[in-house]
TrEMBL record:
Residues recorded with modification 4-aspartylphosphate: 58
Protein name (record): Response regulator
Keywords: Coiled coil, Phosphoprotein, TPR repeat
Source species: Candidatus Desulfobia pelagia
Domain Response regulatory: 8-125
Length: 386
């Protein structure tokens, strides 16, 4: 068995004083091999760079919260079995705390003393050295699942369920396996079984949300997402998905409210902002998409701006907002007057509006520049024949 000083411990805590308290306590207990980070993104990077044995993670953190980070770890072939201790100041009887208990193997509530911390570490190290039958079965189930051996994974979770009938995790993972094999009804039933044991099991709610999105059962989808929002830390993905669901059920106010929260949580994460931009576009929220692009994306890259305005114009046409589409096309042509696609799309719009002379002028210009542009030639023939 490793000595205390040999265990590499990662602490993710954005509160400086709490972080220092934990570092001091761990050192006092003999765990000197430790490293600390300030947020979830830094923690995930450190996990991938370092050789971490035990991870203490604050629940409420910027960039990635504790539950989001836990999901990244559990979905990783390399780190899925890393001992993860959720550190939280949430009241033990609160809805948040029920959520934490449903999702994690270990948790410790602030404020805690060195004795509590030592008891937690002793428990983890015993589990590493001599796992229980249930822990062995769950480990095997997760391992086979991540390596796509679904039959062995299912068998392992069936064993785990028999060893510990009151545990929600075997039902959740059984549901996940059935979802992967396309047996949606069995997946749904197992997710509900997991929730009957742990009513705040976020991952089970997420599984149900995926099923109801596939079935286009929007009332149930929104109910799952709203329940998740009530019991989980603020999450970009949750706010974004709730906004999308609201937009799909003709609730523009709900969509805007949730997209606004998603924007706040995205901060300056370019990938998340791109997701939100697409959501605005798909929801037909043209003005919001244009504003987000102008504030977060528009720079000296005229080509990127032209492509975006062309997309906004086409979406505006689909929504019947032809005047707005025309403005976007013209704005794009100010940056790239000879752009083939934009000239053609504007000509097509003008043709639909029966402004044949203007449409013809744009088509003739683009055909001079691109003589082999077949679609432009065909549209020009239609106009001339009129």
């Amino acid at each position: 068995m490793k000595k205390k000083k040999d265990y590499r411990i990662l602490i993710a805590e954005d509160n400086q004083s709490m972080r220092r308290i934990m570092e001091t306590m761990l050192s006092g207990l003999g765990y000197d091999n430790q490293v600390s980070v300030l947020n979830g993104q830094e923690a995930w990077k450190k996990i991938q760079e370092d050789d971490i044995d035990i991870f203490f993670c604050d629940l409420m953190m910027p960039e990635l919260n504790g539950l989001e980070l836990l999901n990244l770890i559990r979905e990783s072939k390399k780190y899925f079995n890393m001992p993860f201790v959720m550190v939280t100041g949430v009241d033990s009887k609160s809805e948040f705390m029920k959520t934490v208990r449903a999702e994690v193997d270990y948790y410790i509530i602030k404020p805690f003393n060195a004795q509590k911390l030592e008891e937690m570490l002793d428990k983890i190290i015993r589990s590493i050295a001599k796992p229980t039958g249930y822990e062995k079965a769950v480990f095997a189930g997760k391992y086979y699942l991540l390596n796509n051996d679904l039959q062995k994974s299912l068998q392992s979770f069936e064993i785990a369920g028999k060893v510990k009938p009151g545990s929600a995790q075997p039902f959740f993972y059984t549901g996940l396996i059935h979802e992967k094999t396309g047996d949606i009804d069995k997946a749904e039933a197992n997710y509900w079984k997991a929730l009957s044991i742990e009513t705040n099991f976020i991952n089970a709610l997420s599984g149900l949300a995926t099923i109801y999105r596939t079935k286009k059962d929007y009332p149930k989808l929104i109910a799952c997402l709203k329940r998740s929002a009530e019991i989980a830390p603020a999450s970009f993905n949750l706010s974004l998905n709730l906004g999308i669901a609201c937009s799909e059920t003709n609730d523009p106010e709900g969509a805007l409210l949730n997209f606004k929260e998603a924007l706040r949580l995205a901060r300056n994460n370019i990938d998340k902002l791109n997701e939100l931009l697409e959501a605005y576009m798909n929801a037909g929220m043209i003005d919001q998409a244009d504003d987000l692009f102008a504030r977060k994306f528009q720079d000296d890259d005229d080509g990127k701006t032209v492509v975006f305005w062309n997309r906004l114009a086409l979406q505006s046409i689909r929504l019947g907002q032809h005047d707005k589409a025309r403005i976007f096309f013209l704005s794009a042509l100010k940056l790239e007057p000879q752009n083939k696609k934009v000239n053609y799309n504007l000509a097509n719009l003008l043709y639909q509006q029966k402004d044949f002379d203007s449409a013809q002028a744009y088509l003739q210009k683009i055909i001079r520049l691109h003589p082999g542009f077949k679609e432009a030639g065909e549209l020009l023939k239609k106009i001339v024949s009129n």
